[in-house]
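Troubleshooting: if your tokenizer reports a length mismatch, compare your output against this known-good record of 666 residues.
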Amino acid sequence: MRTDTRVTTPWRAAVIVLTVLGVLLAMNQVFFWNVGGLSLLTNSYLYLILAAFLPVVFIVNPLRKVPLAAKVGAGRDDDDAPVPHESPVRWYDVLLMVVAAAVCVYFAVNGTRIKNFGWEFMAPTTATVAAFVLWLVVLEALRRTGGTVVTVIALLFSLYPLVAENLPIGVLQGVTYDLPTLAQVHIMGAEGVLGLPIQTAATILVGFLVFGVALQHTGGADFFHNLSMSIFGRYRGGSAKVSVASSAAMGMMSGSAVSNVLTTGPMTIPAMKRSGFSPTYAGGIEATASSGGSITPPIMGTAAFLMVSFVGVPYTEILVAATIPAVLYFLGIYLQVDGYAARKGLKGVPVSMLPRTLATLVQGWPYVLALALLTGMLFLTGSEAQVPYWVILVLLVVAVLRPGQTFGLREFTDFLVDSGRTLGNIIGIIAGVGLIVGGLTATGVSLSLARELVSLVGDNVMLILIAGAVTCFVLGMGMTISAAYVFLAIVMVPAVIDLGVNPLAAHLFVIYWASVSYITPPVGLAAFAAAGLAKAPAMATSVAAMKLGAVKYIVPFGFALNPALVAQDSPGRILLAFALSFVGVYALASAIEGWTVGFDRRMPALFRVAAAVGGFLLFLPTPLTAVVGLALVAGSVLLTFLTVRTGPTDDDAPAARADAPATANA
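Known-good structure output:
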């Protein structure tokens, strides 16, 4: 394991203590234990959650972050080497930890007074000073976890109510506050730091995040990789198909694109390069597959859990709604990989080198059981917030008692430290995002913006979706997905819903388009991380990832215009929409890769254009577009089959591996 030069033994102990306290506090609230007769008001509970996890932010995140390239380099060259330039915990980190904990505990103790005496608008001097202090602490926590760009945005929006009345742009004019009152509103009101995002995180998200960490630390990542190898490894381009499947599973556990790349990439990228994939394409596959974590049920990214509060539906409904789009996304990657492998003449991994599927499933029964339990209990029990804790208990008990598996004190403490790191970083981001929410809601502008957007575009749904996609992408370049989602869920989504788009589809549209920035130039953080591991040009890898993830750009428009794709229609219409979109993804993958998957023929340029247009039309909900789309797809594939001879591969294709036998198409 890589040495952590910052979180040394004493600080590990501090993170463990804070994590245990925070998780026990969340469980006390979720399970209604009321230990010692203590029944916490919501605001006091949220302050105590902040008191537990904000200090962790200042322990695990230095004042200046290590550049991504340095991290990738360290992981590539020597897994036991310390992370470069990782500074130890300094005196100012300790000061921030103590101040954060003390101020949050002060507010928690005074939770009843804050509610009963209206401290949000009329607070004693001590509380007002403490509000200013926590405001600054939250901004610094956001800077360390989310980056400088989102912090500047949060700062500007949090100060915006100071001048809202005097702005020359009418749509941005709103209620104005003086500075002390604004600090009180942000910190002690129900729409600022303690708003819907942190309420959702503190009740639902804590358990699911810890479950993801538990799944990884008890061996889930290795199991899903081996299972992917056993199922897909033998087919042409098998190493890349394994990358798609294992990265999807890993993303399901964590939802973080860059960390998924850095976790699975060191295994999958070298394997892809050895089997004949170019470094650029190998990096693109890994980045695209890893960036699908935030949209993959049953454990999706943070933004999906925030949807619970914004949409007002159970998480299970979001899980069901996200299933078809996620299947289409990974299907698109898989088909493009298969087409590339066929075009380049690449083979699969020899069967003798692969694990057996049945043996892998038997060996990994705890992880299959965990996912089955999680999914089943989510649908069958009345409290989705309690479910992950029961599944975590099962995973940990099995890991401790199972013969042949080592899960002792060291492994358990590693699990707690990683849980604290994950929770601290998410809480730090979400608390900071609350300042954006507070600035918009305090002025009343969040309500007027939606009306103005609707009046600006008239009744043109496509126009507002295109504008929304561009906005999501731009915000996603500088903000985390959850931060961009919260902002747009307030500003843009209500306008989209007013124009008739299904609420679930509108919110998922934002999440999809905010996440494409991880693979799209000029930022493309996941692609850049994969490029470092693959030793490939960063921008070229990002372009390859964007090409492979093309379905992610199109599917959101499909389900925004056709709610059956997010399971918001009758079963018959849902099945029909899925079948048509399945064909649409096939057509798009064949057009992009220039290869008719399954027929093994190179697709001429004109037929590629026809297939792409037909594929897009199949996502739309009208009978006419379905008929025209099917005709274009069928015509382009049939004419390719009749006019192009079978089996040509690229002249510049790398030689197939000598040890790889001819394998089946898949």
